[in-house]
Amino acid sequence: MTASNDPEADDLRCAMARLDPCIRAHGPMLVACSGGVDSAFLAVAAHRVLAGRMLCVLGVSPSLARAEKASATAFFEAQGLPHRILATHEMDDARYRANGPDRCFYCKHELFGGIERLPEAAHFAVIAYGANVDDRFDHRPGARAARAHRVCAPLAEAGFTKAMVRAAARDLGLAVWDKPASPCLSSRIPYHSEVTPEKLRQIDEAESVLKGLGFDVCRVRHHGETARIEVSFDAITRLRRSDVWSVVDTGVRAAGFERVEVDERGFQSGRLNDALPRTALTPNEEV
Question: How far are the Cα atoms of 135, 185, 224, 232, 272 from residue 202, in angstroms, in the given order?
Fold first, then answer.
């Protein structure tokens, strides 16, 4: 392969060249899908290589926003991807509801265990998920569950960073290529504050109000009776406009909150991790 004057493009081409053989080597696979760009791109790549020897599995529970379920299902259908909806029951696990820093471990443990128990699982060699190289530098207890269940990560194995995943998805014409990250609704609840279906419902309904107004990058943090809203810093002025704020305030209160606040610092992914001691934020050695 001849090097060009664009190192990033060269890196992407190399990663793409590694991905198909990697998927082929793993064999028929169940792809754990979340609705995000990483697993969406992996699913399309796996289908291109394996055709009918792959199956997308979307885990659905109260922690998945209703809009995320709808958009993921629409994506599967638009791409002609075989898929299955799996009801997961992490809310039945008191350790998950306790909402410690390892909450994601119990969520992914339930998801991967549920996939392994599917009747179809006997026809597939492995479970794959959409972890990329960048994930090893983040606080992701779910990666530990993936290792425990021997779940493979073809994108990370092929050397894809998050930026490379987005670029590859864009090149393939996938509408999700620039979709903002949207972790589960439980991530909006401060650690050690119990996760309940009612809190998740409130968050889902409140964020739906914001997204309906065009705030695609947003979080509603659940602080008891208070909803603390995060939008991108340059969107705060629009959020504060009287005509917009009246709709937001009414809609978020209707979701069950007594007070509505705006975080003037703007949106920050993983902001609730700031409250954790550094010893709880150990980067993943592998994904």
Answer: 29, 10, 11, 21, 18
What are the C-alpha distances in Å from 11 to residues 5, 8, 167, 172, 216? Answer: 11, 5, 11, 17, 30
Q: Which ranges of 51-183 does DSSP label H, i.e. alpha helix?
A: 66-79, 94-97, 103-116, 142-148, 154-157, 162-171
CATH of 7-178, one of 3.40.1280.10, 3.30.365.10, 3.40.50.620, 3.50.50.60: 3.40.50.620
Task: Give the start-to-end residue ranges of the domains of the chain.
Answer: 7-178, 185-268
Domain 185-268, CATH class in plain words: alpha beta
pLDDT digits (tens, 9 = 90+) for 149-208: 999 999 999 999 999 999 999 999 999 999 998 899 999 999 999 999 999 999 999 999
pTM for the model stands at 0.90
